[in-house]
Design a protein that fits this description.
D-amino Acid Aminotransferase, Chain A, domain 1, D-amino Acid Aminotransferase, Chain A, domain 2, binds pyridoxal-5'-phosphate, 6 helices, binds 2-OXO-4-methylpentanoic acid, alpha+beta, nine-stranded antiparallel β-sheet, single chain
Length: about 350
């Protein structure tokens, strides 16, 4: 039987936190994970000395659930998120969440919140946020021995409030979000705190977000605050930065495959910031950002404008349509990216 939906303005959700019916919590102690429990409370009890609070032993993931035309609920490339969380754990010495446990946790919490999955065709999605915290109240600077794994969900609209409409970015090259060989390639909270100053400054100047350069040479494009960067060259290459300090985006990885399907040549390589003046199109991509076309980039005292008419370019539009059609079940899924969320009982 179809679930009666929550009473929300589905077409105008925006990107933010909303109360849903349940989140799921697993505790690691005495060397093992418990079975997990669904709760409605949105507050977590934490020891004041917890390693996540003082020393940043915290990592998270972001993925989405989509309602299909037939009313199924599906998730996109969930195994990749599970594996990336494990890589984050390894880098900052946290207890990894086993892949199967991650997937089961997501399924249980999405199943418990079906009425918050935005209806097919509204453009909304259910954003899923798995979060892992080191909870030992040790004070000493060493890895936690206790962990809390929480997965919560919230219905969302586009991350950049204009949706699939080109945005303006500015290169903020006096501030770095990540260090060479630091933690920029994993999804830990400190990266986002480090980016807040440049991002807030960019927004205050009227830009959608900041674009970062590589922290070593300050010459190559890294990524935007919440998303990877890609560009389309005039000879139809899909170019995206190869850098040790950016998050390996699952969306970007998917776009590389779709670009190849479209007859473009995908190339992952260092992208000199001077190249922005040569590209035909540019975009940001990520789970929250989906594909956000870039209208202009300001670099020091120069500006390059990609969408003179303010509309997304043809390649960004094609990529966006192909990606979102697979994600919401409108197009065949030749790569096995989509999994149906089962009834968890
Ligand atoms: N880069 C950063 C810094 C991000 O936070 C995200 C979002 O998760 C991405 C890139 C895009 O990654 P994905 O496509 O896996 O969501
Ligand atoms: C995501 O796209 O899932 C992210 O985690 C980005 C975040 C800034 C919302």
């Amino acid at each position: 039987m179809a679930t009666a939906k929550a009473d929300l303005d589905w077409k105008n959700l925006g990107f933010g936190w909303r109360k849903t019916d349940a989140n799921i919590r697993f505790t690691f102690g005495d060397g093992k994970w418990d079975e997990g429990v669904l709760v409605s409370d949105d507050v977590i009890p934490l020891h004041i000395g917890a390693t996540c609070l003082h020393y940043g032993q915290e990592c998270f993931e972001g993925l989405k659930a989509y309602e299909t035309k037939s009313g199924d609920v599906v998730v996109f490339r969930i195994e990749e998120n599970a594996r990336r969380l494990i890589r984050s754990c390894e880098r900052i010495m946290m207890e990894p969440v086993p892949e199967e446990m991650f997937i089961h946790a997501v399924f249980r919490v999405v199943d418990a919140n079906r009425r918050f999955v935005p209806p097919y065709g509204t453009g909304g999605t259910l954003y899923i946020r798995p979060l892992l915290l080191g909870t030992t109240g040790a004070m000493a600077l060493r890895p936690s021995v206790d962990y809390l794994f929480v997965v919560f969900v919230t219905p969302v609209g586009p991350y950049f409030k204009t949706g699939f409409t080109p945005v303006d970015l500015i290169v903020e090259d006096d501030l770095d979000r990540a260090a060479p060989r630091g933690v920029g390639h994993v999804k830990v909270g400190g990266n986002y705190a480090a980016g807040m100053k440049a991002s807030t400054r960019a927004k205050a100047k009227g830009y959608a977000d900041a674009l970062y350069l590589d922290p070593r040479a300050k010459r190559f494009i890294d990524e935007a605050g919440p998303a990877n960067f890609f560009a389309i060259t005039r000879d139809r290459q899909y170019v995206t930065p190869d850098s040790e300090s950016i998050l390996p985006s699952i969306t970007n990885n998917s776009l590389i495959t779709l670009a190849e399907d479209m007859g473009l040549r995908p190339v992952r390589r260092p992208v000199d910031v001077e190249e922005i003046f040569e590209f035909a199109e540019a975009g940001c991509c990520g789970t929250a950002a989906v594909i956000t076309p870039v209208k202009s980039i300001t670099y020091r005292d120069r500006v390059v404008v990609y969408c003179q008419d303010g509309r997304p370019g043809p390649v960004c539009t094609d990529l966006y349509q192909r990606l979102t059609a697979i994600q919401c079940g409108d197009a065949p899924d030749p790569y096995g990216w989509v999994r149906r969320v089962p009834e968890c009982g």
